[in-house]
Amino acid sequence: MKNLSIKERFGLDRFFLGERRVDGKPLTLNQRRIFILPTQRGLGFALLIGVLTLIAFVYNNNLAYMLAFLLASVFFITILHTYKSMAGLTVQEGQTTSVFAGEAAGFGVHIGNPTSIERQHVQIKLKTVEHFTLKPHSKAHLTLYDVTQKRGWHPAGTVTVFSTYPLGLFYAWSPIRFNAKALVYPKPATQEIPFPETGSTKNLQGRFKKGGDEFYGLQSYQAGDPIRHIHWKAYAKGLGLYTKQYGGESSAEIWLDFGHAPGQSLEERLSYLCRWVVDAEQAGLTYGFILPGLRLEPAHGVAHYQKCLEALALF
Amino acid sequence: MNPNLAHNKEILVFLLTSLGLIVLPHVTHLPWGVFGFFSFLLAWRFIGIWKPEKLPSFPWIVFLIVCGMAVLYTQHRGILGRDGGTSLFVIALGLKLMEIKTERDLYLINYLAFIVAASQFLYEQSILMAVYIVFVSCVLLATLVFINSHIADTTVSLKKAAAIIAQAIPMAIIVFIFFPRVEPPKWLWFNDPQQKKTGLSDTMEPGSISDLGMSDELVFRVKFEGALPPPKNRYWRGPVLTLTDGKKWVQARDFTYQRYLDKPKFSGPFYRYTLLMEPQEKDWVFALDLPAEFTKPLAQNANYQLTTSDDLRKRTEFKLTSYPTYNTGYLTKTEYKDARQLPALPSERIKQLVTQLHGYDRPPEEYITRLLNHFRKEDFHYTLTPPLMEDNPIETFLFETRYGFCSHYASAFVYLLRVAGIPARVVTGYQGGVYNELGNFLEIKQADAHAWTEVWLENKGWARFDPTAAVAPERVEKNIDINSLVPNGAINYAAPDSSLAALNLLKQARKLWGHIDYNWQRWVINYNNANQSIFLSSFGINDFKTMVYWMMAIVGIITAVLSLILLYQKPKQIDPELAVYNRFLKKLAKQGYVKQPGEGASDFAERIKPLLTEQVDNIENITSAFIMQRYGNNPSDEGLKKLSKLVSLFKL
Question: Are B155 and B10 in contact (CB under 8 A)?
Fold first, then answer.
């Protein structure tokens, strides 16, 4: 861990966004990263201590004083306990999943407890909160979701590990700036439109508009085969993965060209183009892909599909 | 956590049970209406855990609130003061139970419960009660742990709460010792009976008081013009109690006999002094025995007690003259009758005792001496925390318990004299006083309250005898706080015949308990401003500033120790074969071949083999030896040695 300059040390974003990080190594939560403040309930507890002290003072009652002091000590000691509930945990970024805009992107997190203390209740927050318990010397893998709006890179931003254990009087938190980012594809248009009629598709027109529907046999599964063509019944019987083959799939070839995509704005056109890519892949067609400045030769399968979507996302 | 936490059955059962535990000891002093109302609401809420539809709707809650206010009003006519305040909190707690919607409500109820727990101490301050309240606090904190746990578990929550409380106790004790104690201003007193009790009363009921108020509150100051009277003459006269029903002693019905126009005969030295009374409730002025000269607005009643017609709520000064030597002369018929009044015929035991001490056949003076000797020689003890003697207190005290303070001794002494036909009565007031060198005056505090006796003797008139002095002479003759004597052994708790006591384990245990209880009273309950400065100055802490520094320093040390204990993490124990294998990984990592997290040992080996063609054999051997050792059926020491050797030889 590098040393912080004074300005960095007291910068507000360190307390809420987390320190800037250069590497993706596992991060240990320690006194430098864990901050702690009383919660609203903690302030209520402090008020309770005040009321008890006042009662003790008015009635000059030593045992009431004792109770007030006991609770004050409990309040104080809870700081240590809350800190302890998350100190020493390690946090590491995991894999991210790519999604279409409007869907929730998932960011994987590996949380490890290399210590011999059981963590009763730790919480982690991106947009929603996840709860977990960690046994001594154990690990947990979580996925945090964040709803995306726009295509392009969606940074995870700050993931906050926090805890109010044991009494809920203090909130200890550790903001961790994740370097992970999820690729967000354009949102496919909701309206279904026919594939563009480009040169090479002309002779196939009418027959392969929406992919072949004549079933002619089974073939053992190969990576890239559309999921909805998998012969699930056979798989359920334990016969292995088979893909249903439909007539003419391999010979169908279309070109998905940005120039042919309808729509007023750039985003709208990308959205239609995206829809075509999704439909074509699902139908098992062989498709070429054209964006201004990019031309992908016709192919099909996951790799090709992702290449197209990536291009759309980053265009 | 979950929004429906407030409907979690386990939490509710846990919380409601702890509330029941907290309010339970209040049963002895809460009005039945308040206690009943709370129990009703608690029972309702318990049913509501399993049948939520049975819980009251909003209009019903309003109705219940009105009911609660009505109960409060009929029982107390107010919410200020100890009794009213306690009832208010108990009823508020009960009503809040009817509306548990969010987690916040759970916290609010929890906090209210702590206040109700604290109010318990305004009624009883025994060790057992303190232990009970700590236990209940533990349960209350456990409900908070329960709420904040991911996987809630009763035992784990209770253990955690107990651990937190145990860790909090040392710091609480330190703060308790150092926290500055200030007497609350008088306007903060809500006219409470509890507060009045510390002063002298016009009745005395020794058997029904289990501990005497030992307030350090100042009653009056006295400044003498000449020398101070010796400590054994410092008796400050208050109400004289003549009539008794065997339990309670009260003043005579009429004490303005005409005879008292005849003044007592005074002789010997006299004392002129100024008496400065603190604001008080009664119109009594405590003059030194026996006042001879006084001016208006003072008046003297037939028992030689001075009263004032001045405003009692402000400090007032009186100039007085007293003579320690006096003769009050003859008795009137009424007085004679009153001073020999007995509640009933004495029992055989009493008669035997009086006979044994020659009460019937020797002159009164001789009988009195024998009686005082009886108190001195027999197994009588002076204690501020005697057992309760509800039934026939005098006989119980004389023959059974034999533990008591001044009131017990005075009442028993007067009673035994009256059985022998000698006129006697109880005098209450203050005894002693602490000399203040700076102001050259005596300070008399509530804790100096005392009861002694007067016996009417031929040719002497009313003469003062103090039976307490026979048992605890230090209480009277020296000007020392009685409290400080017991720990020093000046007042003996141990039985004189120790061989006998050793046989009687129960008696021993009771004495031990008495001793613990006494120290509890002295060091905890009565730890006030004065005690605090005495205690702290024995460590050389004399002023406020040093006190605060010390408190901060000790709290800091405790925090440091606790942090060490809580936050120290043992270095992880690594299995030996893993340690060896890690050495191998380190060698590879130096050259840039890093094993990914989650990658198995054999997967890693397969991945790097093509990159390190000349090391293929070594990598294979090490990996398989490691896998054999770690996951194989029979790992052995030789296997470990072999692995270690292979790794040592491995070079890149």
Answer: no
Contacts with B, A 163-192, CB within 8 Å: 164-169
What are the residue boundaries of the structural domains of chain A, listed by start? 6-181, 199-212+248-314
Indicate the DSSP class of residue A230.
Answer: B
SS3 B558: helix
| Minimal CA separation from B106 to chain A, in Å | 11
Angle between helices B9-23 and B32-50 in degrees, nearest 10: 170
Question: Closest chain B residue to A25 measured between Cα atoms?
Answer: B597
Letter string b/e over residues A256-270, b meaning 16 or more CB atoms within 10 A of that residue's CB: bbbebbeeeeeeebb
CB contact under 8 A, A69 and B562: no
Banded model confidence at residue B273, pLDDT cuts 50, 70, 90: very high
Q: Which of A36, A77, A133 to mutate to test the interface with B (most CBs of B within 10 A)?
A: A77
pLDDT at position B278 over 60 = yes
Q: Which runs of consecutive H residues, i.e. helices, occur in chain A?
A: 6-10, 12-16, 40-59, 62-84, 232-236, 266-283, 302-314
Looking at chain B, which residue has its C-alpha nearest residue A137?
B572
The continuous run of DSSP H or E covering B602 comes out as helix B601-608
- Which of A65, A92, A114 lies nearest to residue B179, judging by beta carbons? A65
Distance between CA atoms of B255 and B240, rounded to whole angstroms? 10
Q: How far is CA A150 from CA A102, A186, B614, in A?
A: 8, 7, 51
- Relative to beta strand A90-96, strand A104-113 is antiparallel
A205 interfacial to chain B (CB closer than 8 Å): no
Q: Is A133 close to B150, i.e. CB distance below 8 A? A: yes
pLDDT in tens, B287-296: 998 898 888 7
**Token output for B117:** 């727990």
Q: Is the pLDDT of residue A205 over 50?
A: no
- Which pLDDT score is estimated for B481? 45
Whether residue A57 and residue B82 make contact (CB cut-off 8 A), yes or no, is: no
Residue type, A116: S
Min distance A109 CA to chain B CA atoms (Å):
13
Q: Is A57 on the interface with B (CB under 8 A)?
A: yes
Q: Which pLDDT value is given to residue B260?
A: 57
Work out the angle at residue B123's Cα, subtended by the Cα atoms of residues B119 and B124, and round it to the nearest 5 degrees.
110
Per-residue burial over B41-56, b = 16 or more CB atoms within 10 Å of its CB, e = otherwise: bbebbeebbeeeeebb
In this prediction the pTM is 0.64
Residue B522 has a pLDDT of 67
Query: Does the structure show a pLDDT above 60 at A213?
Result: no
Share of chain B above pLDDT 90, in %: 17
Kind and range of the H or E element at B465?
A: strand B461-465
Query: Closest to A62 (Cβ–Cβ): which among B151, B527, B567?
Result: B527
Instruction: Express each pLDDT in B377-430 by its tens digit.
Output: 888 888 776 777 777 888 888 888 888 888 888 999 999 999 988 999 999 888
- A59:B150 CB<8 A: no
pLDDT tens per residue across span B108-134: 999 999 999 999 898 888 888 999 999
Query: With bands split at pLDDT 50, 70 and 90, how would you rate the model's confidence at B205?
Result: confident
- Restricting to A residues 130-149, those with a Cβ less than 8 Å away from any Cβ of B are 131-133, 137
**How far, in whole angstroms, is CA B17 from its chain's centroid?**
26
Q: Is the peptide bond before B290 cis (omega within 30 degrees of 0)?
A: yes
In this structure, what are the phi and psi dihedrals at residue A10, rounded to the nearest 5 degrees? Answer: -105, 5
A254/B104 Cα distance (integer angstroms): 62
B168 with A45: Cβ contact below 8 A: no
Q: Which residues of B touch A165 (CB under 8 A)?
A: 145, 148-149
Residue of B nearest to A77 (CA): B168
**Domain residue limits, chain B:** 3-147, 196-492, 493-526, 576-649
